[in-house]
Design brief:
There is one protein chain. A hairpin with a 6-residue loop joins β6 and β7. Strands 1-3-2-4-5-6-7 form a 7-stranded mixed beta sheet. The protein is elongated and about 75 Å long. The protein is built from 16 helices and 7 strands. The protein starts with a strand and ends with a helix. The model is unreliable at 344-369 (pLDDT under 50). Helix content is 44%, strand content 11%. The chain has helices spanning 17-22, 24-28, 60-71, 98-110, 149-156, 165-169, 177-188, 200-217, 224-233, 237-245, 253-268, 275-287, 291-304, 309-319, 328-334, 362-365; strands at 2-5, 35-42, 45-53, 78-84, 115-121, 129-132, 139-141. α10 packs across α15 and α12 runs antiparallel to α13.
């Protein structure tokens, strides 16, 4: 499994190997284990970060051929190559997986990406041993990852580095499979949206606004009725557009609050309806530079609805390593009125929409991604 993280994560000092290694959980979103990580350089700045599972011996050549071309899609001046785990280091011997590192370096060089530094760490944890592949005098013990500049910046932004990829992915798991089954049955029985055409958009906006208000009160998960109304609201194109616009500017309280709500709804809505909040969650996470979580959310969306257009496009963008700022226009175009979001905008939010939009049955609108 491969994780792609765009530029835009917390800053790191590329000249300090130990600090760079210790910052990896905050660059990737979780503490990598048994992994190979490629960190692209753009001069003195960090570019695209790629993480892959450490391959079995029979898969090393295939992975060495697969990872570098993805990094080469974006201009970089060089690469730092890191192996994490993969067994112990014999006294006086090279770090583990030296042959795989040499193979990767050769393919990276063929792609025009010189390896500026190649390192190994037994783990990303305080006092874990680390070493360099080409310099026997380069190495030592890692500092506490929580003491890095990247950790301080991430904490200030309200972001968390999870202990493992599985722990991060578990955030997307359904809260109650039984509740999802009831809601799926209710949605399947609907022949049209639950609001009249004349007030459809403003009524749907009120549903989203109410969800934000419940979230602020800490009222817990939505009821079945509330969940069905929320799923219906996401089928209204104007509503989806403003939801998308809430991802910008990234790292703001409004964007963080929206991301929390989209995450809640991914856990509370059945397939295929959960594809909408999952795609919004993926875009919002991508905009703040969290490629790992964005990729998981987009996978979730495509699992719920394989032909979801937005999720499919964002997945391609993420794999190509496009910087988040290049997709800022998507949020701005989605919310041309500059509204800050449901429950965060003026009380007459619903009035900003043109009324009289024909809603009809979700399957009949022809505009749902």
């Amino acid at each position: 499994m491969t994780t792609s993280t765009p530029a835009g994560r917390p800053p790191v000092d590329l000249r300090s190997p130990a600090q760079l290694l210790a910052a990896l959980p905050y660059l990737i979103g979780f503490r990598p284990a048994n992994s190979v990580v490629l960190l692209g350089h753009r001069g003195h700045r960090l570019g695209l970060v790629l993480r892959g599972d450490l391959p079995r011996p029979e898969d090393r050549a295939r992975q060495a051929l697969a990872l570098p071309p993805r990094l080469a899609l974006v201009p970089h001046t060089g690469v730092t190559l890191v192996v994490i785990g993969g067994g112990g280091r014999s006294p006086g011997g090279p770090p583990p997986h030296a042959g795989f590192v040499e193979l990767l370096a050769d393919v990276l060089g063929e792609c025009g990406l010189p390896v500026l530094h190649a390192m190994w760490a037994a783990d990303i944890a305080e006092a874990a041993p680390w070493a360099c592949y080409t310099d026997p005098d380069c190495g030592g013990e890692l500092p506490d990852p929580r003491s890095t500049v990247a950790a301080a910046v991430a904490t200030g932004n309200g972001e968390v580095a999870f202990d493992s990829r599985d722990e991060l992915e578990a955030l997307l798991a359904p809260r109650s499979p039984e509740a999802l089954a009831r809601r799926a049955e209710a949605l399947a029985g609907m022949s049209s949206l639950p609001w009249p055409d004349a007030t459809c958009v403003s009524d749907a906006a009120s549903v989203i606004r109410a969800a934000f208000e419940r979230q602020r009160r800490g009222s817990g998960p939505p009821t079945d009725e509330e969940a069905v109304l929320l799923a219906s609201a996401f089928t209204v194109p104007e509503i989806r557009d403003v939801c998308l616009g809430m991802a910008a500017p990234p790292h703001t309280p409004a964007a963080r609050e929206a991301e929390r709500l989209w995450l809640t709804l991914v856990r509370e809505l059945p397939a295929p309806e959960r594809a909408e909040p999952a795609a919004l969650l993926g875009y919002t996470a991508f905009m703040r530079g969290d490629g790992a979580f964005a990729g998981m959310a987009l996978e979730n969306a495509l699992e719920a609805k394989p032909n979801h257009v937005l999720a499919g496009l964002l997945t391609k963008v993420l794999k190509r390593g496009m910087p988040p700022e290049q997709l800022l226009g998507l949020a701005l175009a989605a919310d041309p009125t500059g509204l800050s979001g449901f429950g965060l905008a003026p009380p007459d939010f619903g009035a900003s929409f043109s009324v009289g939009v024909a809603c009809g049955h979700p399957a009949a609108t022809g505009s749902q991604p």
